[in-house]
Automatic annotation (TrEMBL):
<dbReference type="Pfam" id="PF00106">
    <property type="entry name" value="adh_short"/>
</dbReference>
<dbReference type="InterPro" id="IPR036291">
    <property type="entry name" value="NAD(P)-bd_dom_sf"/>
</dbReference>
<protein>
    <submittedName>
        <fullName>Short-chain dehydrogenase TIC 32, chloroplastic-like isoform X6</fullName>
    </submittedName>
</protein>
<dbReference type="InterPro" id="IPR055280">
    <property type="entry name" value="TIC32"/>
</dbReference>
<dbReference type="InterPro" id="IPR002347">
    <property type="entry name" value="SDR_fam"/>
</dbReference>
Length: 323
Protein backbone atom coordinates (compact mmCIF):
# COMPACT_ATOMS: atom_id res chain seq x y z
CA UNK A 1 0.00 0.00 0.00
CA UNK A 2 1.35 3.38 -1.01
CA UNK A 3 0.44 5.01 2.31
CA UNK A 4 3.10 2.94 4.05
CA UNK A 5 5.72 3.67 1.40
CA UNK A 6 6.80 0.06 0.87
CA UNK A 7 9.64 -0.01 -1.62
CA UNK A 8 9.74 -2.39 -4.56
CA UNK A 9 12.72 -3.95 -6.37
CA UNK A 10 13.50 -0.59 -8.00
CA UNK A 11 14.19 0.91 -4.58
CA UNK A 12 11.26 3.29 -4.96
CA UNK A 13 7.69 3.28 -3.73
CA UNK A 14 4.39 4.98 -4.44
CA UNK A 15 5.50 7.76 -2.09
CA UNK A 16 8.61 8.52 -4.14
CA UNK A 17 8.56 11.78 -6.08
CA UNK A 18 9.57 12.46 -9.66
CA UNK A 19 12.63 14.34 -8.46
CA UNK A 20 13.65 11.45 -6.20
CA UNK A 21 13.40 8.76 -8.90
CA UNK A 22 15.49 10.87 -11.31
CA UNK A 23 18.05 12.13 -8.78
CA UNK A 24 21.53 12.29 -10.29
CA UNK A 25 20.34 11.52 -13.84
CA UNK A 26 21.71 13.73 -16.62
CA UNK A 27 19.15 14.03 -19.42
CA UNK A 28 21.05 16.64 -21.40
CA UNK A 29 21.10 15.72 -25.05
CA UNK A 30 17.63 14.18 -24.81
CA UNK A 31 14.70 15.73 -26.68
CA UNK A 32 11.26 14.83 -25.34
CA UNK A 33 7.66 15.42 -26.31
CA UNK A 34 5.08 15.43 -23.52
CA UNK A 35 1.45 15.48 -24.61
CA UNK A 36 -1.08 17.16 -22.37
CA UNK A 37 1.75 19.17 -20.85
CA UNK A 38 -0.28 22.22 -19.83
CA UNK A 39 -2.19 20.62 -16.95
CA UNK A 40 -2.12 17.94 -14.26
CA UNK A 41 0.70 15.44 -14.31
CA UNK A 42 1.95 16.84 -17.61
CA UNK A 43 3.18 19.96 -15.84
CA UNK A 44 5.29 18.12 -13.27
CA UNK A 45 6.57 15.68 -15.89
CA UNK A 46 7.68 18.60 -18.06
CA UNK A 47 9.30 20.38 -15.13
CA UNK A 48 11.30 17.38 -13.91
CA UNK A 49 12.45 16.36 -17.40
CA UNK A 50 13.62 19.95 -17.95
CA UNK A 51 15.22 19.99 -14.50
CA UNK A 52 17.33 16.99 -15.51
CA UNK A 53 18.47 18.75 -18.68
CA UNK A 54 16.11 17.43 -21.36
CA UNK A 55 14.82 19.66 -24.13
CA UNK A 56 11.04 19.36 -23.66
CA UNK A 57 8.40 20.11 -26.27
CA UNK A 58 5.09 20.73 -24.56
CA UNK A 59 2.32 19.45 -26.82
CA UNK A 60 -1.15 20.62 -25.79
CA UNK A 61 -4.49 21.92 -26.95
CA UNK A 62 -4.59 25.02 -24.72
CA UNK A 63 -1.67 27.13 -25.88
CA UNK A 64 -2.47 29.97 -23.48
CA UNK A 65 -2.24 27.67 -20.48
CA UNK A 66 0.87 26.09 -21.95
CA UNK A 67 2.67 29.41 -22.22
CA UNK A 68 1.83 30.18 -18.60
CA UNK A 69 3.21 26.80 -17.49
CA UNK A 70 6.36 27.35 -19.53
CA UNK A 71 6.89 30.79 -18.02
CA UNK A 72 6.45 29.42 -14.50
CA UNK A 73 8.96 26.64 -15.08
CA UNK A 74 11.44 28.99 -16.76
CA UNK A 75 11.18 31.32 -13.77
CA UNK A 76 12.19 28.42 -11.52
CA UNK A 77 14.69 26.95 -13.99
CA UNK A 78 16.12 29.78 -16.13
CA UNK A 79 18.33 27.43 -18.13
CA UNK A 80 15.50 25.02 -19.00
CA UNK A 81 14.95 24.19 -22.67
CA UNK A 82 11.20 24.20 -23.27
CA UNK A 83 9.14 24.82 -26.40
CA UNK A 84 5.39 24.72 -26.96
CA UNK A 85 3.42 23.29 -29.86
CA UNK A 86 -0.32 22.98 -30.40
CA UNK A 87 -1.84 19.50 -30.42
CA UNK A 88 -5.44 18.32 -30.07
CA UNK A 89 -5.30 14.54 -29.79
CA UNK A 90 -9.03 14.16 -30.44
CA UNK A 91 -8.46 15.51 -33.95
CA UNK A 92 -6.49 13.43 -36.44
CA UNK A 93 -5.99 16.55 -38.57
CA UNK A 94 -4.34 18.25 -35.60
CA UNK A 95 -2.18 15.19 -34.90
CA UNK A 96 -1.04 15.05 -38.51
CA UNK A 97 -0.23 18.76 -38.57
CA UNK A 98 1.72 18.53 -35.32
CA UNK A 99 3.73 15.55 -36.57
CA UNK A 100 4.39 17.19 -39.92
CA UNK A 101 5.56 20.42 -38.29
CA UNK A 102 7.75 18.50 -35.85
CA UNK A 103 9.41 16.41 -38.55
CA UNK A 104 9.93 19.56 -40.67
CA UNK A 105 11.64 21.27 -37.72
CA UNK A 106 14.52 18.81 -37.95
CA UNK A 107 14.52 18.26 -34.19
CA UNK A 108 15.61 14.86 -32.89
CA UNK A 109 13.27 12.82 -30.70
CA UNK A 110 14.51 10.51 -27.96
CA UNK A 111 11.49 10.38 -25.71
CA UNK A 112 7.75 10.41 -26.40
CA UNK A 113 5.48 10.64 -23.35
CA UNK A 114 1.88 9.95 -24.36
CA UNK A 115 0.46 11.65 -21.28
CA UNK A 116 -2.72 13.44 -22.36
CA UNK A 117 -6.07 11.97 -21.47
CA UNK A 118 -9.71 12.64 -20.66
CA UNK A 119 -12.14 10.94 -18.31
CA UNK A 120 -15.86 10.92 -17.73
CA UNK A 121 -17.24 12.89 -20.65
CA UNK A 122 -20.84 12.30 -21.62
CA UNK A 123 -21.14 10.39 -24.89
CA UNK A 124 -19.41 12.50 -27.53
CA UNK A 125 -17.76 11.94 -30.91
CA UNK A 126 -14.54 13.48 -32.19
CA UNK A 127 -14.32 15.47 -35.42
CA UNK A 128 -13.74 12.20 -37.23
CA UNK A 129 -16.75 10.58 -35.58
CA UNK A 130 -14.88 8.48 -33.00
CA UNK A 131 -16.01 8.12 -29.38
CA UNK A 132 -14.08 10.78 -27.49
CA UNK A 133 -12.30 8.61 -24.88
CA UNK A 134 -10.89 6.21 -27.46
CA UNK A 135 -10.12 9.09 -29.86
CA UNK A 136 -8.18 11.19 -27.34
CA UNK A 137 -6.64 8.57 -25.10
CA UNK A 138 -5.77 5.93 -27.69
CA UNK A 139 -6.18 6.55 -31.41
CA UNK A 140 -4.70 10.06 -31.28
CA UNK A 141 -1.60 8.73 -29.54
CA UNK A 142 -1.48 5.67 -31.81
CA UNK A 143 -1.40 7.96 -34.85
CA UNK A 144 1.06 10.41 -33.28
CA UNK A 145 3.48 7.64 -32.33
CA UNK A 146 3.36 6.12 -35.78
CA UNK A 147 4.00 9.47 -37.49
CA UNK A 148 6.99 10.22 -35.24
CA UNK A 149 8.47 6.73 -35.14
CA UNK A 150 10.86 7.21 -38.06
CA UNK A 151 12.22 10.35 -36.40
CA UNK A 152 12.77 8.38 -33.20
CA UNK A 153 14.50 5.56 -35.10
CA UNK A 154 16.75 8.03 -36.88
CA UNK A 155 17.61 9.80 -33.62
CA UNK A 156 18.43 6.52 -31.86
CA UNK A 157 20.63 5.37 -34.73
CA UNK A 158 22.57 8.62 -35.01
CA UNK A 159 23.00 9.22 -31.28
CA UNK A 160 23.36 5.58 -30.26
CA UNK A 161 21.00 6.39 -27.40
CA UNK A 162 17.98 4.30 -26.49
CA UNK A 163 14.69 5.92 -27.39
CA UNK A 164 11.71 5.47 -25.08
CA UNK A 165 7.96 5.63 -25.58
CA UNK A 166 5.83 5.92 -22.44
CA UNK A 167 2.06 5.41 -22.57
CA UNK A 168 0.07 6.59 -19.58
CA UNK A 169 -2.59 4.10 -18.59
CA UNK A 170 -4.52 3.39 -15.38
CA UNK A 171 -5.63 0.62 -13.06
CA UNK A 172 -9.02 1.50 -14.52
CA UNK A 173 -8.02 -0.71 -17.45
CA UNK A 174 -9.54 -3.51 -15.35
CA UNK A 175 -12.97 -1.84 -15.52
CA UNK A 176 -14.06 -2.51 -19.09
CA UNK A 177 -16.90 -3.82 -21.18
CA UNK A 178 -17.47 -7.58 -21.27
CA UNK A 179 -15.33 -8.05 -24.39
CA UNK A 180 -12.65 -5.64 -23.19
CA UNK A 181 -12.89 -3.37 -26.22
CA UNK A 182 -16.15 -2.88 -28.12
CA UNK A 183 -14.62 -2.90 -31.59
CA UNK A 184 -17.99 -3.19 -33.34
CA UNK A 185 -19.65 -0.65 -31.04
CA UNK A 186 -16.91 1.90 -30.42
CA UNK A 187 -19.15 4.73 -31.60
CA UNK A 188 -22.45 3.28 -30.38
CA UNK A 189 -24.21 5.39 -27.78
CA UNK A 190 -26.38 2.51 -26.64
CA UNK A 191 -24.84 0.81 -23.64
CA UNK A 192 -22.33 3.67 -23.23
CA UNK A 193 -20.84 3.99 -19.75
CA UNK A 194 -18.24 6.69 -19.14
CA UNK A 195 -16.31 4.58 -16.61
CA UNK A 196 -16.12 1.57 -18.93
CA UNK A 197 -15.35 3.77 -21.93
CA UNK A 198 -12.40 5.24 -20.03
CA UNK A 199 -11.26 1.78 -18.90
CA UNK A 200 -11.48 0.56 -22.47
CA UNK A 201 -9.20 3.36 -23.65
CA UNK A 202 -6.70 2.66 -20.85
CA UNK A 203 -6.65 -1.04 -21.76
CA UNK A 204 -5.87 0.06 -25.31
CA UNK A 205 -2.89 2.09 -24.02
CA UNK A 206 -1.31 -1.03 -22.52
CA UNK A 207 -1.98 -3.19 -25.57
CA UNK A 208 -0.58 -0.45 -27.81
CA UNK A 209 2.66 -0.32 -25.84
CA UNK A 210 2.98 -4.10 -25.96
CA UNK A 211 2.44 -4.10 -29.72
CA UNK A 212 5.03 -1.37 -30.18
CA UNK A 213 7.52 -3.23 -28.01
CA UNK A 214 7.13 -6.38 -30.10
CA UNK A 215 7.42 -4.46 -33.39
CA UNK A 216 10.54 -2.56 -32.32
CA UNK A 217 12.15 -5.76 -31.06
CA UNK A 218 11.46 -7.49 -34.38
CA UNK A 219 13.05 -4.57 -36.20
CA UNK A 220 16.02 -4.64 -33.79
CA UNK A 221 15.53 -0.94 -33.10
CA UNK A 222 16.98 0.63 -29.96
CA UNK A 223 13.62 1.99 -28.74
CA UNK A 224 11.48 0.69 -25.89
CA UNK A 225 7.76 1.08 -25.25
CA UNK A 226 6.09 0.70 -21.86
CA UNK A 227 2.87 1.70 -20.12
CA UNK A 228 2.60 3.34 -16.70
CA UNK A 229 -0.12 3.63 -14.06
CA UNK A 230 0.38 6.78 -12.04
CA UNK A 231 -1.76 5.96 -9.03
CA UNK A 232 -4.70 7.81 -7.54
CA UNK A 233 -3.89 11.49 -8.00
CA UNK A 234 -5.79 14.72 -7.65
CA UNK A 235 -5.90 16.22 -11.14
CA UNK A 236 -8.56 17.99 -13.21
CA UNK A 237 -9.38 14.75 -15.04
CA UNK A 238 -12.67 14.60 -13.08
CA UNK A 239 -13.74 18.05 -14.30
CA UNK A 240 -16.76 16.66 -16.17
CA UNK A 241 -18.28 15.33 -12.93
CA UNK A 242 -18.65 17.95 -10.20
CA UNK A 243 -19.74 15.47 -7.52
CA UNK A 244 -16.83 13.10 -8.14
CA UNK A 245 -14.45 16.05 -8.25
CA UNK A 246 -15.78 17.37 -4.92
CA UNK A 247 -15.34 13.97 -3.28
CA UNK A 248 -11.81 13.63 -4.69
CA UNK A 249 -10.83 17.05 -3.39
CA UNK A 250 -12.20 16.29 0.07
CA UNK A 251 -10.10 13.14 0.54
CA UNK A 252 -6.94 14.13 -1.28
CA UNK A 253 -4.83 14.76 1.81
CA UNK A 254 -5.62 11.32 3.20
CA UNK A 255 -5.61 8.97 0.20
CA UNK A 256 -4.37 10.48 -3.04
CA UNK A 257 -0.87 11.13 -4.26
CA UNK A 258 0.28 14.67 -4.86
CA UNK A 259 1.58 15.82 -8.24
CA UNK A 260 5.23 15.23 -7.29
CA UNK A 261 4.46 11.60 -6.50
CA UNK A 262 2.04 11.20 -9.40
CA UNK A 263 4.66 12.04 -12.02
CA UNK A 264 7.26 9.72 -10.50
CA UNK A 265 6.51 6.54 -12.47
CA UNK A 266 6.43 8.41 -15.79
CA UNK A 267 9.78 10.07 -15.09
CA UNK A 268 11.29 6.84 -13.78
CA UNK A 269 10.39 4.88 -16.92
CA UNK A 270 11.38 7.82 -19.12
CA UNK A 271 14.87 8.40 -17.70
CA UNK A 272 16.14 5.84 -15.22
CA UNK A 273 19.07 3.67 -16.42
CA UNK A 274 17.59 0.67 -14.57
CA UNK A 275 14.81 0.61 -17.18
CA UNK A 276 17.25 0.40 -20.12
CA UNK A 277 16.24 -2.36 -22.49
CA UNK A 278 13.00 -3.06 -20.64
CA UNK A 279 10.07 -3.03 -23.06
CA UNK A 280 6.45 -4.10 -23.21
CA UNK A 281 5.99 -3.86 -19.44
CA UNK A 282 3.35 -2.30 -17.22
CA UNK A 283 4.73 -0.09 -14.42
CA UNK A 284 3.05 1.12 -11.25
CA UNK A 285 4.67 3.03 -8.39
CA UNK A 286 8.03 3.00 -10.23
CA UNK A 287 8.12 -0.80 -10.32
CA UNK A 288 7.03 -3.43 -12.82
CA UNK A 289 3.45 -4.45 -12.10
CA UNK A 290 0.97 -7.02 -13.34
CA UNK A 291 -1.86 -5.82 -15.58
CA UNK A 292 -5.15 -7.62 -16.17
CA UNK A 293 -5.49 -10.82 -18.19
CA UNK A 294 -7.05 -8.83 -21.04
CA UNK A 295 -4.00 -6.56 -21.09
CA UNK A 296 -1.88 -9.67 -21.71
CA UNK A 297 -4.17 -11.14 -24.36
CA UNK A 298 -2.15 -11.49 -27.58
CA UNK A 299 -5.25 -11.96 -29.74
CA UNK A 300 -6.85 -8.82 -28.33
CA UNK A 301 -3.62 -6.89 -28.89
CA UNK A 302 -3.48 -8.03 -32.52
CA UNK A 303 -7.11 -7.13 -33.09
CA UNK A 304 -6.59 -3.69 -31.55
CA UNK A 305 -3.50 -3.06 -33.67
CA UNK A 306 -5.32 -3.83 -36.91
CA UNK A 307 -8.39 -1.91 -35.76
CA UNK A 308 -6.25 1.15 -34.93
CA UNK A 309 -4.53 1.07 -38.29
CA UNK A 310 -7.89 1.10 -40.05
CA UNK A 311 -9.27 3.73 -37.68
CA UNK A 312 -6.40 6.16 -38.25
CA UNK A 313 -5.87 5.36 -41.93
CA UNK A 314 -2.13 5.06 -41.63
CA UNK A 315 0.16 3.10 -43.94
CA UNK A 316 2.47 0.64 -42.22
CA UNK A 317 5.31 -1.43 -43.62
CA UNK A 318 5.15 -4.04 -40.87
CA UNK A 319 2.71 -5.36 -38.31
CA UNK A 320 4.04 -6.86 -35.07
CA UNK A 321 3.73 -10.60 -34.60
CA UNK A 322 1.37 -10.63 -31.63
CA UNK A 323 0.46 -14.28 -31.82
Amino acid sequence: MWIFGWKGPSGFSARSTAEEVTHGIDASGITAIVTGASSGIGIETTRVLALRGAHVIMAMRNMGAGREVKEAIMKELPSAQIDTMELDLSSMASVRKFASDYVSSGLPLNLLVNNAGIFGTPFMLSQEGIELHIATNHSGHFLLTNLLLETMKRTSSRSNKEGRIVNLTSEAHRLVYHDGIRFDKINDESGYNFVLAYGQSKLANILHAKGLARLLKEEEVQITANSVHLGAISTNIFRHHKLINAIVCSIIKYVLKNMDQGAATTCYVALHPRVAGVSGEYFADSNIGKPSNLARDANLAKKLWNFSINLTGIQVDQTPDLG
